[in-house]
Amino acid sequence: MKRFMGIALIVGSLTIPALAAKNSQTLTFTQPEKVGSSLLTAGDVKVSWTGTGSNVQVMLEQKGKAPVTVTAKMVDTKNGHVGLVTDSVNGVDVLQSIQLNSFTLVLTGSSSQGE
Questions:
Q1: Has residue 17 been placed in a domain?
Q2: Residue-number span of the structural domain to which 91 is assigned
Q3: Cα separation of 99 and 76, whole Å?
Q4: Which of 7, 20, 64, 88 has the fewest beta carbons under 10 Å from its own?
């Protein structure tokens, strides 16, 4: 019984990171994007999310910078690709939504920057 529990703990600890990875993806911004009141520069951005439906928290992280968190609505769609939907406001690209393969994160709230 102890051997079984030991194996179960090892297998369980290996699957937790795999499950967590499903809620994050790294995207490359080709130009600066405004997210709420924050401006993210061009480059790699790790996008992670928690929640479902209309209550999703999205965190955008760039190396060496404080993360930006924004609320979003998760919409089930079969995009078949990864992309960004932006709108140009006064010459600045404002991020509207993030399209992932099987759903879209439509940004709904203002951003907050972590410390």
A1: no
A2: 24-113
A3: 10
A4: 64
CB 74 within 8 A of CB 56: yes
Closest by alpha carbon to 92, among 39, 22, 17, 28? 39
* Per-residue pLDDT tens digits for 44-101: 999 999 998 999 999 999 999 999 999 999 999 999 999 999 999 999 999 999 999 9
SS3 79: coil
User: Using CA atoms, how far apart are residues 33 and 48, in angstroms rounded to an integer?
Assistant: 17
- Residue given tokens 């992309």 in the structure block: 83
Q: What is the pLDDT of residue 3?
A: 43
How many domains does the chain divide into? 1
Residue 1 lies in a domain: no
